[in-house]
TrEMBL record:
SMART domains: WD40
Protein name, per record: LisH domain-containing protein
InterPro entries referenced in this protein's UniProt entry, alphabetically: LisH (IPR006594), WD40/YVTN_repeat-like_dom_sf (IPR015943), WD40_repeat_dom_sf (IPR036322), WD40_rpt (IPR001680)
Superkingdom of origin: Eukaryota
Amino acid sequence: MSAAQQLIAHYLKTNNLTRTLEAFELELNKKFDCSVEESLETILKDRLAYLSLEKPEFENTKSLWTVDAPKSHETLELGTLKSLVISSSFVKLEIGTKCLSLGLFVTNNKQVHFFDLEKRRNLLVKNDLHGSTATKLVAGVDGTDILFSCGMDGKLRVWRASYDNELQLELLSEDQLHKRLVLQMKFKQMDRKSGFLVSTGWDSKLVATKVNLQDGTIEKLNEVNLLTRASCLLITADSSNYPVILVGRTDTSMVGVYTIHDRIFEIGRLALNDSEFSSHSFHPMAFAKIESDSVVAATNHIPYMRLITFKIPAIADLIGVEETEVAAKIAAASVLATDSESFQTNVTIRRNIIVSNFNSMSPQDKFSDPIVKTRPHKDGIWIFGDDGIVRGFDVGAGSVVEELKTHEGRIKSAFVAEVGNTETIVSCGAVDRVASVWQ
């Protein structure tokens, strides 16, 4: 006789359901002695108590969402004739006394649109930022007149913008960053005169470049050979005033932590997998910084993206010194660092850094390229889904609080910015090829 049948018989007998027990025995043609080590009720209570431990206690969780979300929706007239926008970004340029809030849109027909989001008009359309080579990425430095562009050939160009009734660009410098396609580039301004541009490419290299913001000159510092291709990139600054670069890679849930002295090099790794001996079940695909020391990683889980919030350790904590000793330790480590990442490493691997791990309810497949963006001066993040829906997500409570039905099918690129003191969400569809704006 099965254990389940014995448990049922014991339950019927202990509750004086004798006629039901007799019918049960007749139906099965078995006689039960009704002796068990643990009753059915006890087993069910234990099981329900265990399941309750997995459920987040939303009523006791701090909400991280600012309620005033955009409600007004319209389409941007880029004049692209239904061209696919392959990348987009936002920059707030300061040209003399003039301030421009620009959306930068790169299309698959080699055009780059410099769109004034306040006046809702195209200021400039360029077909030859990289000559006969198609442009892949365009970005700018807020509060300056400096712009960057990367071509499909891996070249970086630095431009100065000027405005006298119309927007004009002056080429300041260029350099070959990668042998092939540049996947991502992020810039961090360190002082008024300079900053670091970090890029990843299809060649599985991580490249650091120092940029002079006054004359636009660039100095390529070095490149690091990654074990696998980079999947996501984020750059921020530590309290020690050194840059902190987070690099996610395909085929591993470990996040590389890098900094820059006179070169870029690895100083630690962060484990996004709760299992101590496993690091290959998933990998991060996008980062969004939400607080001074917290980051949300969007993963490649299917059928729904997961959002893992984790803390960024201070550089002093990672390298095991006091805050006052960071500069000396970084300088010494820079001399000994290599330009190749390896499985066997002497850097600190930090575990138990995960704050939360939630299902985003945003559908995706193995071909998806997740997009998550933080909100300027507000709590929460926006998720740009493969189903064309822009979801507002409370990373504190772990719930979807807003759903903006925006596109027909997958969203190819997006950014969130503050335009005229108003939160502005801009997204570009891969299927409907529409540039949409919520305010």
